[in-house]
Amino acid sequence: FKGGDTCEYLLSSGRFLGEKVWQPHSCMMHKYKNSEAKNCLIDKHVVFIGDSRIRQLFYSFIKLINPQVKEEGIKHGNIPFEDKSASIKVDFLWYPEVNGSMRQRIKSWTEGSVAKPHIIVVGAATWSIKIHNGSNEALAQYKINITSIAPLLEKLAISSDVYWVLQDPVYEDMLSESRKMITNEKIDAYNEAAVRILNSSSRNSKAKVKVFSVSKLIAQETIMKSVDGLHLPESSRDTNAMILMNVYCNKIMKPIDGSCCQPQPPLTLIQKIAFCFFTLSIIGYLIISLIHRNNYRKNKSCTDLESGEEKKPAISTPNVSTLEMLLHCFCKLGLIMTYFYLCDRANLFMKENKFYTHSSFFIPIVYILVLGVFYTENTKETKVLNREQTDEWKGWMQLVILIYHISGASTFLPVYMHIRVLVAAYLFQTGYGHFSYFWIKGDFGVYRVCQVLFRLNFLVVVLCIVMDRPYQFYYFVPLVTVWFMIIYATLAVWPQIVQKKANGNCLWHFGLLLKLICLLTCIYFLSYSQGAFEKIFSFWPLSKCFELNGNVYEWWFRWKLDRYVVFHGMLFAFIYLALQKHQMISEGKGDPLFSNRVSNVLLFVSIVSFLTYSIWASSCKNKTECNELHPSVSVVQILAFILIRNIPGYVRSVYSSFFAWFGKISLELFICQYHIWLAADTKGILVLIPGYPMFNVLVSTFIFVCVAHEISQITNDLAQIVVPKDNSTLLKRLLCIAGFFSGLHFFSAMQDQSRH
C-alpha cells in the first residue's frame, strides 16, 4: 500500500469490471440513490462551468438527484436546476473557453460577501482547439489564462470543493469535418499544461484544486461508442457523475460500501478498553511463560558428572493453570482481533467492489465438489444424519455460501433462491439437532444452555466490541440463538416430555405434538403480525440486541424469511426417532433405509421434488414474491436432499472428510468472512495483493480459514473455563458475565451520549 489518499485514487485511477462497472484503485465506490444524494446535498449549491462535455456531466449529476430531468436546456447557454424539497441548487454556466469571461465569473465568487458555491466543477479546451484550428498560439494563450485563473480557484478551494476536469480523448475517425482539428495529441498537450500549472501553483497554496483525471481513463475504454466521436456515451457520463458524488458525499454519508474518501473511524471508548485488555493479556501471558520456562530450566534433568547417572528433578513440571490457559486464549484472540481491525477498520489494506459473472461462481463450485468427492471415507456409524454426515452437510453448504458472497452472486436470482435454501437447511439442522438432544437425553440443565449460548455467541460479542457493530449486524447468530431458546422453552416447560417418559405411555407423544402445534400457531401469528413482533423485541434489553439502524425491521425480515424451517426440523426429528424406536427403518451398513420397493419409490419422488424446486427457483422473476413463498416450500428441497443422501445404504455409509472438516468450523467461517475475507462488512472484497486477483484470493482465503479454525479452538477452550459443570462455580461465572454486560451497556450509553 502506497499510503496515498483514496480520494486521489478515486479521481485519477481505476479499471472496468466487465463493461459498465467502474472499479477505483484501492477503494470501493458507493452507488448513490436519489434519496441519499438529496440528503448529502441538502442546502448545497453546485456549479458546473465549461463546454458541452461539462454540460453532459451536469445533466448526469442532476439525474442522480431527480431521474425525471430531461436534457432540454439551451445548448449554448446557462441552465439552472433546483430541488426545492431539499433546497439544492445546481447550475450549469456556459463558458466553453478558458478566457477572461470565465476568469471574471470565478473572481466574482472570491470578492466580498458573495455566497460561494459548495462544489465547483470546471473544464474546457476543445472549443479553443476548434476555433483556433489547433494552433500553438491558442495553446500558449490557454496556459496564460489558466495561470491567471489558478490562484482564484485555490482561493475558492479553501471553503469549497473545486475540481478541474481534464479533457477526454476523442474518437478521431468519427469526428465531423468541422472538428477534425481536435486530435488526441492536442488534447494531451492541453491536459499536460493544465496539470502542470495547477500542481505548481498549489504547492504554495493552503488549499488544492482537485484534478478530475479519471474521466480520461473511462473515455479511453468507451469513446468508441460515442455518437459523434467527441461526447461520451451516457453510461460513461453517469460513471463520472457517480465518482463526483462519492468524492463529496462519502465523508458525509459514510456508506459502508463506499470506502473511497472515507477517513478512518476514530476508536470508540469500548474499543480502547478492549485494546488495553488484549494488550494486558498478551503481556501477562508472556510473563507467565517466561516464569514457567525459567522454572523448567532450573528443574530440568541433568547428568551427574561423577557417576554418569541422570538425576531426576525434585519437582515435576506443573500442569498448565487455568489462568495461563485463559491468558493464552486471550493473547491469541488479541492478535487475531488486531488483524480483523487492520483489515476492515483501518485504511491499511485495499478494498474492491464485487462483480458477478457466471464463471466466477460456478467454476469454484465445481472445483470444491471435485475436492470433496476425492476425500471420501467410511462413516463410523450409518444412522440417518449421523455426526460425520451433518458436518459434511454444513461444510459444503458453507463453502458454497462463501463463494456466493465473494462472487457477488446475490444479483443472480436463481442462485440467490438456492442459497436461501442452504441457509434454511442450517436452521433445519438447528431444530433437528437440539430437539434430538433434549428428547433423547432429557437434559434441561443450565450447564447445557450456557454451553450452547457461549459457543454460538462468543465470537460475535467480541466482534461487536472490536469492530463497533451491533449484535443484529451478524444476523445469523441472533437467529440461531433465538431459535435454540424457543426449542428449549417448548420442550422444557411443563409438562417436560422426553423419550424415556413417552416410551412408558404413548399418550405423551400426543402431548408433545400438542406442544409443537402451539409453537406453530405462535410462529404463524407473529409472522403475520409485524406490530406484535416488533413490540416484543422493542422492549429493553431485547431492543439493544435486535435493533439495527434504530428499528427491529431487519430482524423481523430475517426471522420471517425462514420462520417454519426450524419447526420442520423438530418435526422431522420426532418422526425419525419414533420410526427408529419402532424399528420401522433399517440403518445397517449398506442396507437401504426401507424395503427395496418403498426405497425406490421414495428415491424417485425425492429426485423429482428436488429438481422441481430447482426449476421453480430458477424461473423466479421477482425476489419479493419468491421470498414470500420460500418459508413454506424450502423444506421440500431439504427433505428431498436428506432422503437422497440417506435412503441408499452405500451413500449413507460414506462421507467427505474434506467437507466435514469445514463443517466443524462453519459458524466461525460464516462470521469471520465479514471482515477478513470480504471487506466493508461483506459489501466488498479484501485486497492483500493488488494486481493479482487469483493470487490475492488464495492468500486471503488461506489466512481466513486458519483464523476461523484457530478461533474455533479458542472458543472451545474458553467454554471449558467460563462454563464449568459445577453449579456453584457456574453461578459465580454467570454473575461475572452479567457484570460484564452491565459494564458494556454502561460504556455503550456513554459512547452514544458523546456521539450525540
UniProtKB/TrEMBL annotation:
Cellular location(s): Golgi apparatus membrane
Transmembrane segments: 273-291, 325-343, 355-375, 395-416, 446-466, 473-495, 507-526, 561-579, 599-617, 659-680, 692-711, 731-750
UniProtKB keywords: Acyltransferase, Glycoprotein, Golgi apparatus, Membrane, Transferase, Transmembrane, Transmembrane helix
Reaction catalysed by this enzyme: CMP-N-acetyl-beta-neuraminate + acetyl-CoA = CMP-N-acetyl-7-O-acetyl-beta-neuraminate + CoA; a ganglioside GD3 (d18:1(4E)) + acetyl-CoA = a ganglioside Ac-O-7-GD3(d18:1(4E)) + CoA; CMP-N-acetyl-beta-neuraminate + acetyl-CoA = CMP-N-acetyl-9-O-acetyl-beta-neuraminate + CoA
InterPro entries: Cas1_AcylTrans_dom, NXPE4_C
Pfam families, A to Z: Cas1_AcylT (PF07779), NXPE4_C (PF24536)
GO MF annotation terms: N-acetylneuraminate 9-O-acetyltransferase activity
Family listed: Belongs to the PC-esterase family. CASD1 subfamily.
Protein name per its UniProtKB record: N-acetylneuraminate (7)9-O-acetyltransferase
The species this protein was found in: Leucopsar rothschildi (Bali myna)
